[in-house]
Write a structure and sequence with these properties.
seven-stranded antiparallel β-sheet
């Protein structure tokens, strides 16, 4: 049964960070004060394509393993994920954000992609939602790491300039938020 409120105590801690979009020390996780979500903030998650780019710059990814601690008698799933960033795409260029998440030892959620076509130079936001019956919950009574895999890609297409897409910001306003769905075991 779904819980009316979140448990009284929830912590979220990054256990491992891997990927070209999040070198060590460039991804931070913080739970919301009301324990209904947690936010991942990136400081170097940027994909780019164009004349000043290396071939490896067109795709960046970040795989995080986070540990969520909470009182016994509860379990959680993720009902919604909000991804935010900034993109500067030349005419003909295409940017894409894709993400999925899963509990250690279970199958990943379906990858959901969000595409942005140039010309585009603005903030972007993408939301992935799960229907209530489709939310995957951590097994009751077991502690499993929650894995998050996010990817950014940029294709230059026929454009001649540099295009980029980022999931980071110098003012830390750009981030990804995962919204919990709590239930009692």
């Amino acid at each position: 049964m779904q819980a009316e409120t979140a448990p009284d105590f929830v912590t979220v801690e990054v256990k491992t960070v891997n990927g070209s979009g999040c070198p060590a020390g460039t991804a931070a996780v913080a739970p919301s004060p009301d324990r209904t979500a947690f936010t991942v903030t990136y400081s170097q998650f940027l994909a780019q394509a164009g004349p000043d780019s290396d071939p490896t710059d067109i795709r960046k990814n970040c795989q995080l393993a986070v540990e969520v601690s909470y009182p016994q008698g509860f379990t959680f799933g993720v009902a919604k994920a909000d991804y935010r960033g900034f993109a500067h795409l030349q005419a003909g260029a295409v940017g894409m954000e894709q993400g999925n998440y899963y509990f250690q030892g279970t199958s990943p959620t379906a990858r959901k992609s969000h595409t942005y076509n140039g010309p585009f130079s603005d903030n972007w936001q993408a939301t992935d939602s799960s229907e209530f019956g489709a939310i995957v919950y951590a097994p009751c009574g077991e502690r499993r790491l929650f894995n998050i895999n996010t990817e950014l890609r940029v294709k230059a297409g026929p454009s001649t300039g540099t295009s980029f897409m980022v999931m980071d910001s110098t003012d830390s306003n750009v981030s990804t938020t995962y919204h919990f769905s709590w239930k009692r075991c």
